[in-house]
Specification:
With about 80 residues, the chain is an alpha+beta fold. It has 3 helices and 3 strands. It starts with a helix and ends with a strand.
């Protein structure tokens, strides 16, 4: 399964978001540090979910990282826009 699909699945299961966009930005980082050649190393996620909106900024980021679990070891960079 593609990393972007797995990110989508895990965040949907964990938070039932009202809005979720997962963008693979790996092509923008080809040849740079962290580019493992897989084309799945850099991502941008926008997520809106009631459960996250009630949390502070640091807690929201921690909750998303926890939901992603072991994917964190496969992702070099993850930009988050959480609400």
């Amino acid at each position: 399964m593609a990393v972007s699909d797995e990110i989508t699945r895990r965040l949907t299961d964990a938070f039932a978001p009202t809005e979720l966009r997962v963008e693979n930005e790996s092509h923008r980082h080809a040849g740079h540090a962290g580019d493992d050649g897989s084309g799945e190393s850099h991502f941008r996620v926008l997520i809106r979910a009631p459960a996250l909106a009630a949390m502070g900024r640091v807690d929201r980021h921690r909750a998303v990282q926890k939901a992603l679990g072991d994917l964190n070891t496969r992702i070099h960079a993850l930009a988050l826009d959480i609400g």
